[in-house]
User: Fold these one by one.
Assistant:
Number 1:
Amino acid sequence: MDAQSDSAEHQRPTGIHLDAAAVAHPAVGGSVAPMGRETVFDCQGLGVRYHGTRALRDVDLQIHSHAVTALIGPSGCGKSTFLRCLNRMNDLIPGAAVDGACLYHGENLYGPDIDAIEVRKRIGMVFQKPNPFPKSIYDNVAFGPRVLGMKDSLDDRVEQALRRAALWDEVKDRLKSGALGLSGGQQQRLCIARALAVEPDVILMDEPCSALDPISTAAIEDLMMTLKNDYTVVIVTHNMQQAARVADITAFFSVDQGETGPRTGVLIEVDATDRIFTKPANERTEAYVTGRFG
Amino acid sequence: MIGALALCAAISILVTVGIVIALLVPSLQFFGEVSPVEFFTTTDWAPLFKPASFGVLPLIVGTLNTTLWACVVCLPLGLATAIYLSEYAHPKARAVIKPVLEVLAGIPTVVLGYFALTFLTPLLRTLGWQVEIFNAFSAGIIIGILLLPTVASLSEDAMKAVPSSLREGSFGLGANRFQVSTRVVVPAAISGIAASFVLAISRAIGETTIVLIAAGQLAQTTMRPGSTVETMTAFIAATGAGDVPVGSISYKTIFAVGLTLFVITFVLNIFAIRMVRRFREVYE
């Protein structure tokens, strides 16, 4: 993949910071294109099947830089499945097949010449349950740079990543001690630091707070707000309040009961977060956000 | 019910203690007649001759010789097989390879012994390496093949037990499959892998039939692979099967060598447990 020239072309317009009210075109066609933000992902008719059973179909969704995009919806609606399409993590699940196109800076991630390893170097991921390696704090953060051969000034890189993940002050005196000695919230911030250490373009977070207490959750949410200044952030959450607090744009997924039986996830609506929660265009979204449908 | 279970547990303990006592008593009688210094420091082993000499070192070195070649085969190949089966193999490939490995583990050692003597040794000679008819190398290699399934299977179990969330985490950072296997999965599974190694080494030291058939019975203090050697187990088996009178010094020699063998494997196990405690990466 010609990733390097790609990122040079799409320089991040730092300093431009739009609030959700400035989002220009609501709703139609799954596209909200705010001024000054680039389209990072442009999914066209994206769908996923597991062993032939369709789990997600026809998602048309654009995701923009320097914003937090939240994916919400009931269980089984395919929001995590969709997220895992964005860095080709679904490749690792036997029997998973992706159709449609997912353009990343204009290049189809599922094109014939794309190396999934390259994709994951640029698009980092944080998982539902904190999954630090059973190594030291330092070695966890250094893991990515080491496997990618970014060995110069590794100490600085580790420190930078830990600072960005707001963990440095808590761990700077015990970098050589085991990561599993950290609390759950610290472990999750360590996983974020680990993802940041390889200087990705995008951070995907799959229900990053679902295993955490409220205080740790607040710390991670603050972190997301900071991270969007430098990165494109996409989160999956089952917590609507969380989406309302952190996301600029919210996409609502739901489940269609197919004619033959299998339940398939579909994208219902995407818009600025406050619109989704105050005056959604689709009645299914309204039913969900007002709690009439779970 | 609890009584019956406790009885079973007690029986296994009693049997173990009984074996140790049965080994210790004749050994202590032996060391009453032969000094431990002579036994452990001299290199002339001729317990059945007159005048007899009792330097056990040739047997220990002979055992090391065959064990070394066994390890050269079974440790790296076993670990590589385990990595392949656990991290790479398609379920269909796995469904073929696993049963084949299990068949390999089920071949009688007497068959493997003659395979070493009548196939591997002549093959080595045909290839231009003038090994002796009975040699440590052939026996060791075949022991390694015998133990390969043990290492592969136990190591694979340990690697399969590593949570897939750790694999996802490292794939998510752009690691390739080899890096995920060697830098995350193997370190996380190291205690199980080390346990499989120790078990394999202990069994290589204790393997009897193959060395008896293919390594010979000439006690020489040598690590040369092509030489005939006598291992501790081969001595015990050959002498025990011969017509040694009960209670004679030659008879007691068998137990002294058996005790030496027992102590070596016991120390090896304790050492390995220490190592594993120090180096393992504990997940959850």
Note: Residues 8 and 226 of chain A are 23 Å apart (CA to CA).
Number 2:
Amino acid sequence: MTRSFLSIRAVRKTFGAFVAVHDVTIEVPKGEFLTFLGPSGSGKSTTLYAIAGFQDPTSGDVLLEDKSLLSVPSHKRNIGMVFQRYTLFPNLSVAENVAFPLRVRRRPDAEVKRRVADMLALVRLENFADRHPGALSGGQQQRVALARALAYDPPILLMDEPLSALDKKLRQEIQAEIRRIHRETGVTILYVTHDQEEALHLSDRIALFKEGRIEQIGTGEDLYLRPASEFVAGFIGNSNFLPGEHLETAAGAATVRLADGSIITGLTAAEPFSRGQKVRLMVRPEALSLTPGPASTALQVDIVDTAFFGDRRRVVARTASGDEIDVRPTSDATDPAGAIAGSGRRIYFDPALAFLFPA
Amino acid sequence: MQGNSSRRGSVASLAAGSGSALPALLLVGLFFIVPVVALLLRSVTDPEPGLQNYAALFGSGTYVRVFLNTFLVAAVVTAVTILVAFPVAWMLAIMPPAFGSVVFGIIILSMWTNLLTRTYAWMVLLQRTGVINRTLMGLGIIQEPLPLINNLTGVTIGMVYIMLPFMILPLVGTLRAIDPMTLRAAALCGASPFQAFRRILLPLSLPGIAAGGLMVFVMSLGYFVTPALLGGTSNMMLAEMIAQTVRSLLNWGLGSAAAFVLLVITMALYALQLRLVGARRTGGGA
């Protein structure tokens, strides 16, 4: 077995009776981009703060290359961090901000100069060296913060929702920068966000947090294509949920009866269900199509609304039992709108992108 | 940005309210400017026209010593006040507002308590047979009473105590504007608590320290009650000297000259501070 790099072992944090983090365990290999994703208050930031040393876990341990970090104060952990708020030192210029971690480590002047130039080139802010943080835009400030955090070549870079204060266009721009910097430096990144698109865009792996626990950890594909729970399915990507009843499971393929009476077969069940158990069928909008397929995957619907988005359409359909379904057919994008409208239509879905969860 | 808008606001309200400011301006003119001019005139006319009062002031070793001592006391008091006030101000800046307002209330309350009462209280505490000396002797820490009163120590203790609110209040304002996350960032950058203080927190709090420091220094220069009660004859301060000159010696000319010199020095210091702070602002904002 290879030596572990960053190891978060059964970290637990309580505030009085409230348990913010329940025994979180994660192994992070060197060079990985791991994202902690989850709604606010799910414990993702608390876990990050335990690694940074801002909050001591109630129990558990954090090890870097087999040495515990917990007894090491923040300023000796050698960890880089970019914060949600702008935390540049307002009394120092951009270059002095980036030089700060090197100056406190008493590195020789020539090295500091070279390193600052390299870092500012990395975040493409060479021409801003003598500005003060107050004269920079939010996006530029976060790029300087990134340069500062990487200046002393830390083994781990923590990022706590660094883009949440920026507008959408700027966010995408800096996401691309972060990906490039991760590729170029090979630094291990732990990234906290509540934005699933950001997580999918950036990460090698995603740990999805819910109420202080990791609901599922895996690649973006794992979470999207093989969600472990209804929460994961609902949090990552768009989903339709249809209530129904489990009839039987044979050879791994489940059969259900939906609320409108239609029988669907060949479904993957997340866990064994008993006969007659209430279930919810989750279907991705892009797994639905108006192109005819097998009858075992057909739903009888009325088309309520269609909208054209250029590369795809969005169709809102309604079943006889009144459940609304969001359909995003790509293959039908060239169909004239009239062919999609109307009542008594059938839509078909790909069973590989449909999952059964307990109700 | 905030400073700019509030500055613009105050200029606007100044223009709008200039009519109603007239009584106050008259009051200041009549009861401040006129006496200062009278003071100046008296110092060069009493007992006869000429600069003999100023010559006496700067020619006599005694008076020069009083001036130097006044500056020494003011400087020591200012320095000690900054040292004592900073941790309190920092605590007030980072503590939850509900707690903070209680501590703030205690500080303000001390300002509202009669100055003479507070100074007499210090006499009770500091004198040879006072509470402090008796306690220390009772505990066997000292054999002889410490000289805590009628000297620089007594004046410093008493004045620092009175000046603290004037230092804490401007400092809290400056420190509250500093995001505590900035200091966490400094820590993760590898700065020890001392390095974070010296390189980040201290530079960022300098405007507050300068504002509070100047206020304390200027107030200390002209302070009368506390130095008179807690100080000794060997380190008399200027205000006490003026009082003696006028009251006991009835030498109004010399007293006026001393008061005028104090005023000029104070104004010079204020102008100097304005220049220094102004220079830093334009330099830092570029």
Note: The first helix of chain A runs from residue 44 to 52.
